[in-house]
């Protein structure tokens, strides 16, 4: 089935067409909310501050681009993502949460409820911290606020995050991609026309080769990200024949897919959070009364500039390290080996149990090296492309590129699966 025929089938299917239009409508609502600034904000001074401070541009990724005008949804779904990561980690440490995660759908609903509840205080802390950061920027972005103004602004920002979280869940219910990812995707894509416009304003004939080189590198990078995202190692698995009564079951061969990049974009999120922390603290310390503290803050800012060598090396190391760390949390060879043994499956040439678990662990570690290195390269991609092409106005972060490609792949797969389900029902 060609892409054109698939598109025709999608829009001919009334139910699927309604789902897609519903999702597009919610994304439009999100973009409208992202353009409603909070009262008392100097939007021009805010945008100038963000253009001069590139480290804050990373924060703008998970706000869906709404942080640059400090809209009512300025925090985006960053606090919700942080809360989700916290509970993913706690589920591996706290026995009660681990048992809950194994209870199936009912347990997952409880964890999701806890995640939503934790999002509220995280959003309030993030909102208060962002207000203080903008106040101490010295740009006159936010004037003096009373206690009531602080409380009102924090409540609005927190409500905006909860609103986006609700929109994301509504989108996910339609099974047209992951709602949270699509919201981030919409924010990233909405910034592309502005980047093209800035490039057009500064364009001259001497930049033709640089722009051509940028486009070629961009296409190759997207192809590489797709290749790594879809890459997997198939472990052969055989199932022994079982006789129950007068019937024989099993006796077939299958495979166990191991993704090259099992961690997805989580390692980049972890790395961004850590690599930005010193710069944000230094930003707050620049207006301290002590000269020593100010000098230390200036040194930290110089070292952790996003286009600096120290920043690039640390960012790459952190992404690679977190890839191994997070994969070790979510991938359990011993549990997989036990499940295979219970189902009568085995890896040819390997004894069920510990030997199978050790084999799966070794294979995962080997293919994980390729996934970790590829994630690290994608993360520092702007540091490489910028000096080579000289087209800094169109460079987007590696995290943004990974999110865009991953969301497109996931959404296309879910739409195709719904088409297949309808094919099966018609048959």
UniProtKB/TrEMBL annotation:
Sequence intervals crossing the membrane: 20-38, 72-94, 114-135, 147-167, 179-196, 208-228, 268-288, 308-331, 367-385, 391-412
Membrane topology: Multi-pass membrane protein
Subcellular location: Cell membrane; Membrane
Organism domain of life: Bacteria
Gene Ontology biological process: intracellular protein transmembrane transport; protein targeting; protein transport by the Sec complex
An annotated GO cellular component: plasma membrane
Record's keyword annotation contains Protein transport: yes
This protein's name: Protein translocase subunit SecY
Source organism: Candidatus Kuenenbacteria bacterium CG2_30_39_24
Gene this protein is translated from: secY
């Amino acid at each position: 089935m060609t892409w054109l025929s698939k598109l025709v089938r999608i829009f001919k299917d009334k139910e699927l067409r309604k789902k897609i239009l519903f999702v597009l409508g919610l994304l439009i609502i999100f973009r409208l909310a992202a353009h409603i600034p909070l009262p008392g904000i100097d939007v021009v001074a805010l945008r100038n501050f963000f253009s001069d401070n590139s480290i804050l541009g990373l924060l703008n990724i998970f706000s869906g681009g709404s942080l640059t005008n400090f809209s009512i949804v300025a925090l985006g779904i960053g606090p919700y993502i942080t809360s989700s990561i916290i509970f993913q980690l706690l589920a591996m440490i706290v026995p009660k949460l681990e048992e809950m995660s194994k209870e199936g759908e009912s347990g997952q609903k409880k964890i999701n409820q806890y995640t939503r509840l934790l999002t509220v205080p995280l959003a309030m802390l993030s909102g208060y911290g962002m207000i203080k950061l903008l106040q101490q920027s010295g740009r006159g972005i936010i004037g003096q606020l009373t206690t009531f103004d602080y409380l009102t602004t924090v409540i609005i920002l927190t409500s905006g995050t909860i609103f986006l979280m609700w929109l994301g869940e509504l989108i996910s219910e339609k099974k047209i991609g992951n709602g949270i990812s699509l919201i981030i995707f919409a924010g990233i894509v909405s910034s592309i026309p502005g980047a093209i416009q800035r490039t057009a304003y500064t364009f001259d004939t001497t930049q033709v080769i640089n722009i051509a080189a940028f486009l070629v590198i961009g296409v190759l990078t997207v192809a590489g990200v797709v290749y790594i995202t879809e890459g997997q190692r198939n472990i052969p698995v055989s199932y022994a024949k079982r006789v129950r009564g007068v019937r024989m079951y099993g006796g077939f061969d299958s495979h166990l897919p191991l993704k090259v990049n099992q961690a997805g974009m989580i390692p980049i999120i972890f790395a961004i959070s850590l690599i930005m922390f010193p710069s944000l603290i230094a930003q707050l310390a620049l207006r301290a009364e002590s000269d020593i503290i100010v000098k230390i803050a200036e040194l930290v800012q110089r070292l952790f500039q996003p286009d600096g060598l120290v920043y690039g090396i640390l960012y790459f190391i952190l992404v690679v390290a977190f890839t191994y760390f997070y994969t070790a949390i979510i991938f359990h060879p011993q549990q997989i080996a036990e499940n295979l043994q219970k189902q009568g499956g085995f890896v040819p040439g390997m004894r069920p149990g510990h030997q199978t678990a050790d084999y799966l662990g070794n294979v995962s570690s080997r293919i994980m090296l390729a996934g970790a290195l590829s994630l690290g390269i994608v993360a520092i991609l702007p540091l490489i492309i910028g000096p080579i092409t000289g087209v800094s106005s169109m460079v987007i972060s590696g995290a943004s590129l990974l999110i865009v490609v991953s969301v497109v792949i996931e959404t296309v797969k879910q739409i195709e699966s719904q088409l297949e389900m309808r094919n099966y029902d018609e048959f």
